[in-house]
Amino acid sequence: MSSDLSELYQHVILDHNRRPRNRGQLPTANRVAHGDNPSCGDQCSVFLRLDGDRISDISFDGSGCAISQASASLMTTQLKGKTASEAREINRRFHDIVTTGREPEEISDLAAFAGVHAFPARIKCATLAWYAAMNALDDNKASATTEVERD
Amino acid sequence: MPSWKNIRNDFPALNQLVNGKPLVYLDNAATAQKPRAVIDALTRFYERDNANVHRGLHALSMRATSAYEGARARVAKFVNAAAPEEIVFTRGTTESINLVAASWGGANLRPGDVILLTEMEHHSNLVPWQLVAKRTGAILRYIPVTGDDGLLDLRQLDRLLTPEVKLFAFTHISNTLGTINPVAELCARARKAGIVTVVDAAQSIGHMPVDVQAIGCDFLAFSGHKMAGVTGIGALYGRRALLDAMPPWQGGGGMIASVDLYESRWKPAPERFEAGTPNFADAVALSAACDYLDGLGRAEIQRHDGDLARQAYARLGELPGIRLLGPPGERGGLVSFALGDVHAHDVVTFADEDGIALRGGHHCNQPLMKKLGLTSTARASFYVYNTPEEIDVLIASLKRIQKFFGG
Q: Looking at the structure, do residues B196 and B311 belong to the same domain, yes or no?
């Protein structure tokens, strides 16, 4: 197996794929957003319990490849307990990691996704849940999509 | 004349390493590789004969026109149309079906009329009908698919062939299931009821003999690029009486008999449906693809691709936890499968590391996937140059993937 591929599917991702955290609907949620990736059929719903400015609980549900499921799972562990602005900052860092391949300076599980950078076709798998989460945070009712609809 | 011996040497793209491994190209249902003869025909046209067709009075334009109309006659012969005028060149299967939907459908469908389809249609033989149904008030109905064995539930046909049905469109070979539908039987049933038939031949045209008169269809749509031709060219076969009675669907040069400021008159088919500069260079390459495939023999191609698909189906079936789609016996040259819990895109990414080109996803078959309770499958599809040894490579790769995700 090439080093690129093992980096992509390194243990953190496989672990989150096999044992997803915070999976399923969240009965206490007061925000929900849905995301879909039309080219591959991946779907993801993100449920937020927002108390004031803080994400007191978060979960996801949906179906997709190992990368999309692991990314959603990892995201919930990263965003739980954070304020909206902290969550947006983490989202920005995650985006930076998957699109540039640069690992963050601080130690973080997010670094596991740096390998996605080498597989451009898979970047949207990794970012789907995050788009949905940001939409939930913004209370944007529009479904998040990794592709722009064209007329 | 091409030969089966050393056939791989005819296809330059096959001779390469992918991720350090010899390319195993199993994505032929999406697009096939091109033989040197087709690439050369295209290059030769551009290097020697290129000029715009029709109305041209100079030497190159006359050569281009005769090459283009020669290609039309060649394609007509390839599908055994009664005349070259029954072949309209299009961009491919999708455009051919959209042409029928917009032109025939727009002119003939009334509110309450029924368009009969099947649950195994590719989006290209589904969405155009949804669009014209919205426009005309027609209604869509579907012949169900039985289940994972991927057959049409033809017991429903009597119930579904009501007097309201005006058009019946169905695929010849399912791009997801590999099912070969009994198209001649379906057309005969429809004809008896006065129903117009449209056959989507995208997956059959390059893989088996396709004879529009034997099938008995009114329209048949296909693409060049899945039959060793180039991208951007395909054709619509239409029975002449129907084509001649249909209104244009796009306006422009080349399709008019005369133009006034407020009104125009159309040429007969096929020119009526080819507004603007046609894709003559790619049509010439498509003609070369017809020659290439007939050189091999399409009955032999069907045997070859079907054998590989049946072998693959049997070998894949030995993998633990795999779910195979489509009929176990007679099938077109492709196999779709779900590898246990491993998502199709992970399968495709890992197979690519072994130099294997697969496709993963919904295969433009979302309603069928939904019905079968799947979001995606991986698909291996075969063509003339594939070998049993490549199935070995595929199986070994899938075993590695199962071990990685399971271990």
A: no
Query: CATH no. for residue B70?
Result: 3.40.640.10
Q: Classify domain A3-138 at the CATH class level.
A: alpha beta
Give strand ranges (E) for B278-351.
Answer: 322-324, 334-339
B128 with B235, same domain: the answer is yes
Per-residue pLDDT reduced to its tens digit, A98-121? 999 888 777 788 888 888 888 888
Q: Is B187 a catalytic residue?
A: no
Output the pTM of the full model.
0.92
Q: Peptide bond before B128: cis, by omega within 30 degrees of 0?
A: no
Q: State whether B54 and B11 are in the same domain.
A: no
Tell me the ipTM for this assembly.
Answer: 0.81
Q: Tens of pLDDT along B269-324?
A: 999 999 999 999 999 999 999 999 999 999 999 999 999 999 999 999 999 999 99
> How far apart are the C-alpha atoms of B330 and B385, rounded to whole Å?
20
- What distance lies between CA B91 and its chain's CA centroid? 12
pLDDT tens-digit profile of B16-54? 999 999 999 999 999 999 999 999 999 999 999 999 998
**B349 → chain A, closest CA residue:** A5
pLDDT band at A40 (very low <50, low <70, confident <90, very high): confident
Identify the domain containing residue B283 by its residue range.
Answer: 39-294
Which sequence spans correspond to the domains of chain A?
A: 3-138
Tell which of B259, B294, B329 closes a domain. B294
Q: Is A6 on the interface with B (CB under 8 A)?
A: no
Q: How many domains does chain B have?
A: 2
Partner residue facing B19 (CB), from A2, A40, A43: A2
Residue B2 lies in a domain: no
Interface of A with B in 21-60 (CB under 8 A): 39-43
Contacts of B149 (CB under 8 A, 6+ apart): B326, B327, B328
To the nearest 10 degrees (0 to 180), the angle between helices A66-79 and A11-18 is 90
Q: Considering only CB atoms, which chain B residues are within 8 Å of A69?
A: 343
Chain A environment of B360 (Cβ under 8 Å): 40
Which of B356, B358, B375 should be substituted to probe chain A, the one whose Cβ sees the most A Cβ atoms within 10 Å? B375
The CATH number of whichever domain residue B393 belongs to comes to 3.90.1150.10
8 Å CB contact of A65 and B369: no
Q: B220-230 b/e with 16+ CB inside 10 Å = b?
A: bbbbbbbbbbb
Chain A's closest residue to B366, CA to CA, is: A41
Q: Are residues B342 and B289 in the same domain?
A: no
